[in-house]
Sequence to fold (461 residues):
Amino acid sequence: MSSKIYVLDTNIILHNNHMIKELSDNGNNIIVIPETVLIELENFKKNFTELGFQARTFARMLAASKVSEVDFKNNCRIVKMKLDDINLHLFAKVKYDSDIDTNHLDESNDKRIVEVATASQDYYKGQKIVFLSLDVYARMFGLLANVKVESLREDRSDVPAFQFIKTLSLDSSYFNTINNKDIRDYDEEYKYGNYSYEFVSDDGNTLYAVISPSGLIHVIDENEDFKGLEVKPINLKQKFFMKSILSNIYDIHIVDARAGSGKTLMAFTAAMRLIDKGNYEKIVYVRNSIESVDKGADVGYLAGNDEKFRIYNMALFDTLEFIAKKRLRKKENVDMQMAIESKIEEMMGKYHIEKLWPGEARGRTLSNAIVILDEWQNSSNNTTQLILSRLDNNCKAIVIGSNRQIDNMYLNRYNNGLTSLLKQTQNEKNPLPLFAIELDKSVRGKFSHFADEVFGKVEKN
Fold:
């Protein structure tokens, strides 16, 4: 098999530098790192973000590599390095055709990286040159330069159709005795991944239940399950979601939910109930939105900097404010805003609510906590691994996000952490008990519904 020459764009390394080993194919292929990529990575490595972590990890890889040859040919300088079975070639041109335009630096850098891919065609004659980039514009520059371009293979991986909720016809005479029975006694075609059931009888009655990892049926009893909650689920899928948390039979809950579906509110309400019952001690809120990538380095990852991070934790404060209003009774001559702020502070203390950013997680161990991972469509697999590996055996994770709202330019609906976990929900050999559901109804109000109806259709088309 003839070897391939992979010329990497910066975003490939920032997305997941472990891909280098896979692309190397046990040394059969050569990985070319353009000089401009090194310059861009140098700028990232000082950041206390996931991108900074990836840049520093790659720097350690370079430091561990040994130089085997330095070649100068066709006005190009190539430093050939080797790390185990990985062949890394650092590639620079003496003179670039593209001038540096400080007003359009990203575009200038893209063109210079593509120039290296073009020069590689002359240097590695007879071998297949592939320019890898997650950036569609960079790939277009490559095509214009007559270079073969690709994205990562994982970008094109199929996302299976999930059937988290199954409808089953069942005589209503079983409804009073089905709780805690094995689902396989009633559904011979039950398969792992059918986490929730809607039982429908011929006489028009319905019964709803979630299925434990061992296959036991846990019937939803609205009068008991949601009794005393300030915020109650108002549609069927919310009920499945909240029942799954309150039953406390799953370790990880994965939710793909559209904006305004109540996912964060449901998660916090149920988490507080479990703490009230003494099952856990605290709630840890991890939000990984685009601010984690772009703004985190600007404000700094310093513990206790609530004012710096308040704007990026507005979803948390909005949720707590909503719950606080529900817990407060209107009284005359009371400053409601002051009362709400006081109630939020009280809840923060009572439930030991912590705010955690991915950059703060390394070196920590989270114990006896419900960890809510919000906006997880903007998290990579590396960040997902980082956070989940911080949890000890006494924790529960609730992972929520929306693949309709991906803001991270290094991720898409095929390769983000939320999708990877959703795919895992179909794996019957999971070491941890999982629950998954899709919340597809907006409950925020008429504007959210209007936006989804009008602009959601446009995006889908």
Q: What stands out?
A: Residues 230-460 form a domain with the Rossmann fold fold (CATH 3.40.50.300). Residues 291-305 have pLDDT under 50 and may be disordered.
